[in-house]
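RECORD TYPE: inverse folding
INPUT: structure tokens
STRUCTURE:
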């Protein structure tokens, strides 16, 4: 009588309903309230009944979301003069046989005898079977009649568009997810169809404890159910028409269902094992296994540029280390940086003050020339900063790594080993996902979802272990928190991956050990690489500088700034390269107080965030 979608108050309400016959108040149910969340006359709507007239009224305000409904029960035969509903077709007989195997596979045979009542009718589809988890695959689909078509998803039949009788048989196999509920929609009368006779039989290799039939009360006297320990038989004693729904749910001990392990289960285990043992070999031969105990260092290293420092510290070439060169040039007065704000937020104008001399490395000169390729002035903001930095990073990556290889700064891991480890890890992840979703009809969609979530979790875990390994090797107070973080976070990561990929088709121990190997491989391969003896002293110096940057005590930093107020400008490139900005910036914030947000160090931090596409955290 009144819907709940009005976006304003209703001052008064009145309705008059003229029914086709005299109404008894006992056959009327009046419901009112807000947003359909009610089971009585919560709005106190008044009701009057005389003869065949019903009047509803409310003189006070009905607030937004108010709703009024009325249910009226009429005697059978009230609408006896209405024309009969014209069905598109009538199912004269429907026989369904389902055999459930110990592998929880359903072998289905459906026999139909159908009378087509209309010609050229578009709504001539017949759903073959509604099974719980209906997105599961259907295999070996066959139909005995050439006149019956099959849609692209194999879940419904296209009947002939001509009048007449047609008899046909459909057979197929369905594999729902193992351990899923054993539930069948015996009849779904959502389409214009009438069933005169139906026989539904279920035979199970696993004992059936019970069978629950779910249907409307007026249907229960039309169906007959016979139950035994392994067989269920359901018959209709009367016609089943439109809007009739009958569901059957079997109570079965699902632990009795088993499926043989697929070859992918063995592949993922052995690929993970190969990945683990090769990673262990690389760790023993090429990674730093000793703990570095470095004393605090306070000044920028004059013997190495910031990009090379980041590479030596993290054992990898990163975009962040490359971005540190901009601050390195600024500290050496090769460029000037000015900041200003407009509608786009923070903007930085970088001006070229001169060319890099021969004391700078080739990769530095290339990146410098790329930055000022079109003009001696460059504007960097949030819109272009990250992309610009990525292009400069990509342009020098090959030359930088070749330079590091020639200098033999780090022990070189044979490329064959790297490729085998990466390929084994890729195969492991793919097989884990395949084992989990291979029985689903929408494999591509699910594969994409599982791959995205799995890769994201493993990437996060990889980043965390890298920081923890650096912290552990550098036995310092400032970084010890990473060790605790790894202990508390690695377990949830591991459990989430287990919940995602442990599945009954593969023995638990196989999948569990596969995930163990995978996690241990990631943990091991993120250990810093050994450097040569010449660079070891430089590396110790960088760890000492890292200790100081991460020391939360501000006393030493305050003393250094009092001696030289430009101190931060010299060390900031190395702060960026060693990824120590957050703690250092918070220390500067404590020292500068109110002046911090107008200081040069704050704007340098913002520029670093823009170049690396990260969020401003202070």
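DESIGNED SEQUENCE:
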């Amino acid at each position: 009588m009144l819907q709940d979608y009005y976006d304003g108050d209703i001052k008064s309400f009145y309705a008059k309903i003229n029914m086709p016959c005299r109404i008894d108040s006992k056959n009327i149910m009046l419901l009112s309230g807000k947003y359909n969340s009610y089971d009585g006359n919560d709005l106190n709507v008044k009701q009057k009944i005389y003869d065949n007239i019903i009047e509803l009224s409310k003189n006070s305000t009905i607030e937004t979301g108010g709703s009024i409904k009325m249910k009226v029960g009429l005697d059978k035969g009230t609408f006896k003069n209405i024309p009969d509903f014209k069905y598109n077709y009538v199912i004269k007989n429907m026989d369904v046989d389902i055999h459930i195997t110990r592998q929880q596979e359903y072998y289905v045979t459906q026999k139909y005898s159908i009378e087509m009542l209309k010609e050229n009718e578009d709504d001539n589809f017949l759903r073959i079977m509604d099974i719980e988890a209906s997105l599961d695959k259907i295999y070996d689909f066959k139909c005995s009649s050439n006149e019956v078509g099959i849609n692209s998803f194999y879940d419904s039949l296209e009947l002939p568009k001509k009048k007449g009788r047609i008899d046909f048989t459909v057979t197929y196999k369905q594999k729902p997810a193992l351990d899923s509920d054993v539930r069948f929609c015996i009849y779904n009368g959502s389409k214009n169809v009438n069933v005169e006779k139906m026989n539904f039989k279920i035979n199970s290799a696993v004992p059936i404890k019970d069978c629950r039939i779910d249907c409307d009360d007026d249907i229960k006297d039309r169906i007959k159910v016979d139950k035994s320990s392994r067989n269920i038989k359901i018959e209709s004693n009367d016609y089943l028409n439109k809007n009739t729904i009958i569901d059957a749910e079997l109570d079965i001990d699902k632990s009795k269902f088993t499926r043989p392990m697929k070859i992918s289960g063995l592949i993922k285990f052995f690929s993970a094992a190969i990945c683990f043992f090769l990673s262990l070999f690389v760790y023993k031969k090429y990674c730093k296994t000793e703990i570095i105990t470095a004393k605090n260092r306070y000044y920028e290293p004059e013997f190495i540029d910031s990009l090379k420092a980041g590479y030596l510290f993290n054992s990898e070439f990163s975009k962040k280390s490359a971005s540190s060169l901009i601050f390195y040039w600024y500290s050496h007065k090769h460029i000037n940086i000015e900041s200003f704000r407009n509608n786009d937020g923070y903007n930085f104008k970088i001006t070229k003050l001169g060319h890099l001399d021969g004391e700078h490395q080739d990769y530095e000169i290339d990146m410098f020339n790329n930055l000022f390729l079109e003009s001696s002035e460059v504007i960097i903001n949030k819109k272009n900063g990250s992309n610009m930095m990525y292009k400069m990073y990509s342009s020098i990556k090959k030359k930088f790594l070749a330079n590091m290889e020639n200098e033999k700064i780090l022990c070189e891991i044979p490329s064959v080993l790297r490729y085998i480890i990466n390929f084994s890890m890729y195969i492991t992840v793919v097989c884990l996902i395949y084992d989990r979703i291979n029985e689903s009809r929408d494999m591509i969609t699910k594969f994409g979802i599982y791959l995205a979530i799995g890769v994201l979790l493993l990437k996060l875990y990889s980043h965390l272990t890298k920081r923890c390994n650096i912290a552990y090797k550098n036995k310092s107070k400032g970084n010890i928190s990473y060790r605790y973080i790894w202990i508390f976070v690695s377990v949830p990561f591991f459990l989430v991956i287990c919940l995602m990929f442990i599945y009954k088709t593969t023995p638990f121990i196989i999948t569990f050990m596969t995930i163990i190997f995978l996690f241990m491989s990631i943990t091991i391969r993120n250990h810093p690489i050994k450097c040569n003896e010449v660079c070891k002293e430089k590396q110790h110096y960088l760890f000492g500088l890292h200790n100081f940057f991460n020391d939360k005590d501000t006393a030493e930093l305050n003393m250094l700034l009092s001696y030289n107020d430009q101190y931060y400008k010299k060390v900031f490139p190395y702060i960026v390269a060693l990824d120590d900005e957050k703690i250092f910036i918070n220390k500067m914030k404590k020292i500068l107080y109110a002046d911090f947000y107008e200081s040069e160090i704050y704007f340098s931090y913002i520029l670093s965030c823009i170049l690396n596409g990260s969020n401003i955290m202070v």
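NOTES: The longest strand covers residues 89-100.
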